[in-house]
What we know:
alpha+beta; two-stranded antiparallel sheet; Chitin-binding type-2 domain-containing protein
Amino acid sequence: xxxxxxxxxxxxxxxxxxxxxxxxxxxxxxxxxxxxxxxxxxxxxxxxxxxxxxxxxxxxxxxxxxxxxxxxxxxxxxxxxxxxxxxxxxxxxxxxxxxxxxxxxxxxxxxxxxxxxxxxxxxxxx
Length: 126
């Protein structure tokens, strides 16, 4: 019986806590007004920012520092990784360019009505 009464009291307290009116919000404090200054009015001169230079100097050493360059990309290991101009620097790219040029020549031969001679690796007029 005591348990039932205790549970009923707990439920009653929870119910009144949940249905009670929300606490009143505190009244906002009045904002202070800034004191009136009796100093001279500001001058009409415009401040000029110093010119911005590309070089950065450290205050302690006076040495000029430059922005770090990103690391170079690794050498291509397959033809699809090559960029324009890489054929002079990398053999993989030179071989890939020769292969692509051969494919273009073969396609142009067939498109123009020619016959590709496989042994001679050249286009014969059709």
